[in-house]
Amino acid sequence: MMRYLCAALLAVTVAGAVHAEEKKADPKDPLSKFTDEELADPGAACQKFFEAIASEDAEVVKAFLSEVPKNLAGLDLKKKEDRAAFLKAWAAYKGATVTKSMRIAAAGLAQVTYEVNGAEKTLRWQNVGGRWKYVGD
Length: 137
Known about the structure:
The chain has 6 helices and 4 strands, in the order H-H-H-H-H-H-E-E-E-E.
């Protein structure tokens, strides 16, 4: 009995690892490098957003936006100048750290509190397709 249980557990673990590799293999989705758990938690998603800004990963920053502002929508993130201009728009969040988050489940919204340069501020996030996206201050 124990042998069958161990074999079943191993099969589930291997299947889960294969599924995780398949998920990470999607080059068209910049958020695929994060786990589903990270993307399902508004605080964790917001922290990954801040980290992407700090590491100048414009594709990930853009993927975390529920809507790209009109003045930034036409920028080509493959061009160095456009990528720098896009990231400059989010420079206020560089070095920010999430301190807490609160979900409003019925509305699919969350309020994330963060600290940057000693000041505490909040952001609104919205759940879009099981992923939390930044919707603005």
